[in-house]
């Protein structure tokens, strides 16, 4: 008897708890909704918008860029954003950008001798993988933000991305497949090193299928103007990265394979990593096969099966490939569009650790 009443009480208490919890959940989710998408009413838009000044301390690889006019607004429609390489603006610059290569090869250095304005933030920029960024230990505690192809960088600057688009009615997958495919697999390689994983794979693959190789390393240079038309004649393009790192998916995929309308065969981070950026049926991953021989046989078969080959182009009905028109200017201007999403204050106390994590 006592036991029965006891369990009834527990039941009642549980029920009350459930009701309270449920109503809290409803309230909480409506609060979250209002916070997640703050929509500014017209009258809330500040009349006084101050410009953000972005200073390029020196140009990547010394490639000078012309910054004539209101660059960010004129070229990319980004207002209130002053991009300059005039070092005399240092005292008023909101952001200063340093491209890593200049720092690690000793041609450039951080302006540590100048008084750094309190509000000024320094941006470390590199599009290379950690294998090619040198020792970053000397820069501990100097940078506030990173700009890189990595998705977890403060300023994500990928080698390319996809944007949804609507093709006109009447467009079919076949419209995206170049009609003249005469080579099975092609590869353009500038830095041919026998110890690269990609070289080992190539050496095995060429025993199974013919691979057309281009580049300085094999004394078969392709002029830039011929690059994409050459690749468009290939069923497959070997988009083999020079080193394997998280998110490191370079212009080999975006510009060469996708740009040349050849199906990419990739060596790089795991398939899942690619799938975060591109559709799963847009590429062939070397790791999908238990051996390179198996990969070669698959490619041979696929090239002979028009219908199946075309499935690797289906995604093009819905997405278009985009790359920066100028990777040394456009991502810099984009800083001005991301001001409200930045973590602040922020300091990279151990840039080297972030780089290799
Ligand atoms: C804009 O800012 C300036 C200086 O802070 C101020 O004097 C001026 O009244 C502001 N104008 C408007 C329209 O808010
Ligand atoms: C992709 O595009 C095609 C043709 O425009 C359309 O029929 C289809 O619904 C789209 N698929 C998706 C997932 O949007
Ligand atoms: C930027 O980094 C510097 C150097 O570590 C630091 O003193 C400053 O507080 C940081 N600024 C912000 C806004 O995080």
Mean pLDDT: 91
Low-pLDDT sequence parts: 29-43
CATH homologous superfamily annotation of the largest domain: Glycosyl transferase family 10, C-terminal domain
The CATH class of the largest domain is identified as: Alpha Beta
Beta-strand segment tally: 13
Give the fraction of residues assigned to helices. 25-40%
Rg calc: 26 Å
From the 3D structure, determine the CATH topology of the largest domain. Answer: Rossmann fold
For the record, give the distance between the C-alpha atoms at the N and C termini, rounded to a whole number: 62 Å
Please give the domain count.
Answer: 2
Number of helices: 11
Order of helices and strands: HEHEEHEEEEEHEHEHEHEHHEHH
* Largest sheet descriptor: 6 strands, parallel
> Strands across the major sheet, in which order?
2-1-3-4-5-6
Proportion of β residues? 15-25%
Main location: Golgi
Domain Fucosyltransferase N-terminal: 51-160
InterPro entries: Glyco_tran_10_C, Glyco_tran_10_N, Glyco_trans_10, GT10-like_C_sf
Keywords: Glycoprotein, Glycosyltransferase, Golgi apparatus, Membrane, Signal-anchor, Transferase, Transmembrane, Transmembrane helix
């Amino acid at each position: 008897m006592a036991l029965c009443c006891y369990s009834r009480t527990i039941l009642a208490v549980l029920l009350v708890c459930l009701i309270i919890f449920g109503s809290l959940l409803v309230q909480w989710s409506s609060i979250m909704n209002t916070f997640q998408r703050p929509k500014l009413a017209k009258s809330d838009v500040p009349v006084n918008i101050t410009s953000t000044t972005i200073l390029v301390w020196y140009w990547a690889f010394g490639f000078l860029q012309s910054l004539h006019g209101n660059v960010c607004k004129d070229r990319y429609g980004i207002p209130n954003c002053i991009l300059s390489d005039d070092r005399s603006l240092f005292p008023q610059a909101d952001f200063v950008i340093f491209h890593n290569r200049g720092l690690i090869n000793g041609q450039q250095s951080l302006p540590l001798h100048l008084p750094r304005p309190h509000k000024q933030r320094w941006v470390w920029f590199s599009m290379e993988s950690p294998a090619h960024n040198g020792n970053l230990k000397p820069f501990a505690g100097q940078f506030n933000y990173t700009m890189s192809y990595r998705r977890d960088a403060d300023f994500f600057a990928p080698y390319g991305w996809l944007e949804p688009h609507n093709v006109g009615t009447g467009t079919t997958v076949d419209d995206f497949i170049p009609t003249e495919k005469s080579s099975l697999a092609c590869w353009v390689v500038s830095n041919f090193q026998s110890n690269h994983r990609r070289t080992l794979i190539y050496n095995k693959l060429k025993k199974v299928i013919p691979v057309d190789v281009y580049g300085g390393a094999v004394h078969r240079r392709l002029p830039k103007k011929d690059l994409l038309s050459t690749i468009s004649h290939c069923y497959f393009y070997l988009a083999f990265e020079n080193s394997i790192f998280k998110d490191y998916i370079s212009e080999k995929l975006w510009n060469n394979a996708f740009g040349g309308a050849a199906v990419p065969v990739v060596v790089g981070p795991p398939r899942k990593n690619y799938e975060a950026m591109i559709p799963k049926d847009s590429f062939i991953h070397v790791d999908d096969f238990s051996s390179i021989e198996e990969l070669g046989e698959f490619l041979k078969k696929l090239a002979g099966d028009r219908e199946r080959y075309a499935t690797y182009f289906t995604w093009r009905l819905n997405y278009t490939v985009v790359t920066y028109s100028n990777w040394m200017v456009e991502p810099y201007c984009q800083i001005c569009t991301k001001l409200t999403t930045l973590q602040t204050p922020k300091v990279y106390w151990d840039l080297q650790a972030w780089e290799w994590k």
